[in-house]
């Protein structure tokens, strides 16, 4: 695919590729993202560019001595549509039989290491049971998110009714494959005031956009700018594991950005976007021209507006530094969390083992009520109460009281006074789009950027993705929605990149999210806003259940705990374009004591 976008003067570009096998290294070796960024003089101001230095030399393909080959089963051992994990001595592979053909792939999801054998095989791909990432069984390529890497695909041959698999030892141990990417061969990289692609925001949408461009052979300049001081990191982990250090959260090591010429501008705040002259201005006065622009600024947490809001030790969780500080202050002390949504509840769960006491303040009568409904919310609330969390429901904070400037008490509107040494505020977020107000890029009344299915804004050449956009959701009759999920940001970043390259891709992914509390995971797929009924199969008290959210006679979302891979199964059905009817679910709950899910893969209702 084309190396670069059209410019006034056509330049001849050749594409070079690096085999990324060893260069990626293991995930644990992720660099801290500090490194020694080059200070770059632009318009008289020093800028921090993480630029390309030395590229790793390409690694040769593995020789025979680096490979292992073994007969792993008889052809009749697997039925069509079956998957099996098999041992090859140096590691396991996932063996799949589909339409009479055998395929061998990496057996773990590169995202968080889920065993794919427990996932869902459908339409030529396997979907991860934990977080819904999808991999093509013919190529191992990642086809739906979350995560960045693909699976290795291994050679399969059939001899005398036996199935043989041949694999490189290194691939068996790595369990992930970074797609081959172009390098940046633009002569101006790192030292000019214009770039071909500028990406504002380095979350999942921004990073996936940059990587997709390189995967598709684009070899011109890409600049990724972020308010953060770190290279792109795994933000959902912040509230689930508040102790995590930036280097443990890094999505890619800094060598990766160097190798593929993706320049990252840290602590860089865009203050204006001039779409007529295709130029952005940074807070320090630095100006950068662009040819294509992706806006992926994410959102800003809402703050409390009550009396005493400026006292010390009141936090929103936005960065690793915020999260680390909260844990430090909460150890052996009293913590109060305001807001019983995903972020607040994850933080409360994490702090129970660290803090002397944890209290949650919430306006609704049960946690997650709008998202998961009354019954599921109550079951989760009980799990928290069993872990010594105290709830103050249907009230809000009226005052934060300090002693010597530091937080001492949280006063509620119900006139209760709660002791507090640290307070975490998780009451929602607003799109971080203030810098666009003076531009001609459309914003809606709430500050979101409306885009079409190709992630295009109203301005040609300007795309937007992630938490700050509203877009048409295909399988909910193109209803314009905002879905601030990690997985959705990945998918939108990819679609934006494809359309920068004029590939005419459209967003069609089924939303998928997860939360983890007290070592238990809740998975969720679909878009449940406006549900009018919840049908529950299983045992809520035991936290082993699946909940189907319906509107009229259609299932619009599903949530589960300890019921894998039901959520991935439902996501796969919805992704195939088939509607699931309320009646099917009611019959299943009525007759199924076994939890049999075969009805879901039936053809239509």
UniProtKB/TrEMBL annotation:
Principal place of residence: mitochondrion
Example of a GO cellular component annotation carried by this entry: mitochondrion
Subcellular location: Mitochondrion
Region annotation Disordered: where it falls in the sequence: 23-46
Record-annotated membrane-spanning stretches: none
Domain of life: Eukaryota
Molecular function via GO: 2 iron, 2 sulfur cluster binding; metal ion binding; oxidoreductase activity, acting on NAD(P)H
Gene Ontology biological process terms, A to Z: execution phase of apoptosis
Gene3D superfamilies in UniProt: 3.30.390.30, FAD/NAD(P)-binding domain, Rieske [2Fe-2S] iron-sulphur domain
Domain Rieske, residue spans: 70-165
Xref: SUPFAM superfamilies: FAD/NAD(P)-binding domain, FAD/NAD-linked reductases, dimerisation (C-terminal) domain, ISP domain
Pfam families hit by this protein: Pyr_redox_2, Reductase_C, Rieske
PROSITE patterns named among the record's database cross-references: RIESKE (PS51296)
Keywords on record: 2Fe-2S, Apoptosis, Electron transport, FAD, Flavoprotein, Iron, Iron-sulfur, Metal-binding, Mitochondrion, Oxidoreductase, Transport
Record's function text: Induces apoptosis through a caspase dependent pathway. Reduces mitochondrial membrane potential.
Family, similarity comment: Belongs to the FAD-dependent oxidoreductase family.
Name of the protein: Apoptosis-inducing factor 3
Annotated organism of origin: Lynx canadensis (Canada lynx)
């Amino acid at each position: 695919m084309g190396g670069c976008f059209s410019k006034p003067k056509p330049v001849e570009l050749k594409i070079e590729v690096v085999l990324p096998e060893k260069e990626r290294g293991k995930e644990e070796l992720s660099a801290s993202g500090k490194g020694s960024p080059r200070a770059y003089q632009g318009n008289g101001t020093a800028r921090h560019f993480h630029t390309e230095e030395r590229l790793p030399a390409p690694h040769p393909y593995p020789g025979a001595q680096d490979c292992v080959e073994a007969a792993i089963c008889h052809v009749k051992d697997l039925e069509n549509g079956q998957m099996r994990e098999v041992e090859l001595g140096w590691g396991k592979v996932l063996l799949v039989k589909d339409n009479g053909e055998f395929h061998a792939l990496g057996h773990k999801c590169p995202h968080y290491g889920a065993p794919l054998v427990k996932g869902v095989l459908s339409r030529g791909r396997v979907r991860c049971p934990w977080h819904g990432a999808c991999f093509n069984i013919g190529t191992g390529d990642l086809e739906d998110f979350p995560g960045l890497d693909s699976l290795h695909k291994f050679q399969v041959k059939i001899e005398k009714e036996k199935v043989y698999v041949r694999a490189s030892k290194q691939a068996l141990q790595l369990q992930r494959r970074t797609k081959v990417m172009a390098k940046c061969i633009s002569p101006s990289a790192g030292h000019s005031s214009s770039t071909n692609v500028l990406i504002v925001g380095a979350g999942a949408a921004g990073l996936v956009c940059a990587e997709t461009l390189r995967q598709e052979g684009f070899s011109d300049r890409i600049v990724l700018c972020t308010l953060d001081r770190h290279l792109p990191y795994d933000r959902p982990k912040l509230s689930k594991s508040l102790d995590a250090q930036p280097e443990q959260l890094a999505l890619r090591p800094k060598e990766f950005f160097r190798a593929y010429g993706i320049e990252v501008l840290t602590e860089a705040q865009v203050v204006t976007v001039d779409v007529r002259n295709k130029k952005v201005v940074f807070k320090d006065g630095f100006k950068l021209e662009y040819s294509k622009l992706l806006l992926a600024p994410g959102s800003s947490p809402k703050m409390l507006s009550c009396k005493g809001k400026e006292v010390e030790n009141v936090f929103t969780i936005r960065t690793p530094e915020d999260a680390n500080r909260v844990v430090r202050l909460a150890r052996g002390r009293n913590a109060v969390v305001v807001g019983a949504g995903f972020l607040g509840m994850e933080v409360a769960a994490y702090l129970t083992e660290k803090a002397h006491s944890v209290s949650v303040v919430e306006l609704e009568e049960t946690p997650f009520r709008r998202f998961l409904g009354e019954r599921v919310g109550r079951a989760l609330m009980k799990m928290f109460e069993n872990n010594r969390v105290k709830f103050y429901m249907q009230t809000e904070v009226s005052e934060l009281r300090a002693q010597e400037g530091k937080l001492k008490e949280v006063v509620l509107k119900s006139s209760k006074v709660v002791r507090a040494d640290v307070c975490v505020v998780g009451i929602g977020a607003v799109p971080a789009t203030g810098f666009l107000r003076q531009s001609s890029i459309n914003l809606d009344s709430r500050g979101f950027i409306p885009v079409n299915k190709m992630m295009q804004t109203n301005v040609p050449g300007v795309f937007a993705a992630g938490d700050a956009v509203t877009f048409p959701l295909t399988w909910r009759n193109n209803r314009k929605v905002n879905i601030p999920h990690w997985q959705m940001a990945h998918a939108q970043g990819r679609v934006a990149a494809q359309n920068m390259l004029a590939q005419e891709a459209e967003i069609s992914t089924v939303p998928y999210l997860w939360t983890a509390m007290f070592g238990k995971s809740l998975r969720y797929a679909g878009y449940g806003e406006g549900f009018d009924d919840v049908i529950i199969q299983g045992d809520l008290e035991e936290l082993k259940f699946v909940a189907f959210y319906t509107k009229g006679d259609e299932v619009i979302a599903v949530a589960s705990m300890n019921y894998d891979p039901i959520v991935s199964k439902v996501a796969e059905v919805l992704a195939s374009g088939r509607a699931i009817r309320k009646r099917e679910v009611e019959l299943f709950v009525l007759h199924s004591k076994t939890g049999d899910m075969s009805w879901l893969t039936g053809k239509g209702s």
